[in-house]
Amino acid sequence: MIKVLFICHGNICRSPMAEFVMKDMVRRAGLDGEFQIASAATSSEELGNPVYPPARRKLWEHGIRCDGKTARRIRAADYEDYDLLIGMDEANMRNMARCFGGDPEGKLRLLLRFAGREDSVADPWYTGDFEATWQDVNEGCLALLNRLYPEVRLDFSGCRNREELYALMSERMLWQEDYGRNLDALYDILTGLPHYGRSFVIRLPDADSPVYDYAVRIADVFRAAGVPVTAE
Questions:
Q1: Residues 22, 42: Cα–Cα separation, whole Å
Q2: Is 148 helix (H, G, I), strand (E, B) or coil?
Q3: Segments of the chain assigned E as strands
Q4: Minimal CA–CA distance to 52: which of 32, 66, 38, 33?
Q5: Is the Cβ–Cβ distance between 100 and 79 less than 8 Å?
Q6: Closest listed residue to residue 223, CA positions, set 202, 196, 193, 194
Q7: Which of 11, 40, 64, 157 is the most exposed place for a label (fewest CB within 10 A)?
Q8: How far apart (Å, rounded) are the C-alpha atoms in residues 175 and 170?
Q9: Do the beta carbons of residue 24 and residue 46 sit within 8 Å?
């Protein structure tokens, strides 16, 4: 089991958003039993407070709930209890290192580094822009999951029509928005979204299935978009 603790200053905006976005991604990827995910603060300013309402609303816009979450502060024991302790910005990282007495095992990471970025997750406490924070958190969490579980299996064998093919892809590929259900839109998604080294294995339907030919065409779109894929 991989244990991940997301950390920000107060544990009411960025780190709980990351916690529940990551939990949603893990659930949708069918990896619930492989992770333990939580979040905490480097300060005591918001201890016991729930997720900040605008952050809660932003999560809910995407069907993600955070009921019952209240802010807690990091403690020295967290370093041994978790495999990864992920900060939202450099100030978080400095405070984490002070609390843990350094980082002898290399567990402290910045979230957006997983996405190849050097900047911080946008702090909506100052900007009021919760959409920017959502985008950063979603990108960072997707990159983290891709790093830990880079192979995605798409089992089309039970699909009976094109809509079921696209529904399965949306679920397993962790798309957070609604996209067109056609091959051109699929190509745009595959070339427009970062995959960070993900590879895909597509299990095709039986040859006599009404969607066999279309599933083969989907695999061809993956290849045309430069995304590693194997069809079996």
A1: 20
A2: helix
A3: 2-8, 35-41, 84-87, 108-110, 151-155, 199-203, 229-231
A4: 66
A5: yes
A6: 202
A7: 157
A8: 5
A9: no
Q: What is the dihedral of CA 226, 170, 193, 57, to 10 degrees?
A: -170
Question: What's the rounded Cα separation, in Å, for the pair 160 and 170?
Answer: 16
- 3-class DSSP assignment, residue 114: helix
Q: What does each C-alpha distance from 147 to 81, 104, 163 come to in angstroms?
A: 21, 22, 29
Active site positions, annotated: 8, 14, 123
Q: What is the pLDDT of residues 45-65, one digit of tens each?
A: 999 999 999 999 999 999 999
Which residues are registered as beta bridge partners of 154? 202
The Cα–Cα gap between 66 and 23 comes to 10
pLDDT for 218: 94
Distance CA 92, CA 102 (A): 13
What pLDDT sits at residue 150?
Answer: 79
Q: Look at residues 56, 76, 70 and name the one whose alpha carbon lies nearest to residue 130.
A: 56
Cα distance between residue 203 and residue 196, in whole Å = 22
pLDDT(194) > 60: no
Q: How far is CA 172 from CA 105, 108, 186, in A?
A: 32, 28, 14
Tokens of 91: 């100030």
Please check the confidence at residue 102 and state whether its pLDDT lies above 80: yes
Q: Which two tokens stand for residue 1?
A: 């089991």
CA distances from 141 to 19, 26, 56, 222, 229 (A): 9, 10, 17, 22, 22
Classified as helix, coil or strand, 140 is helix
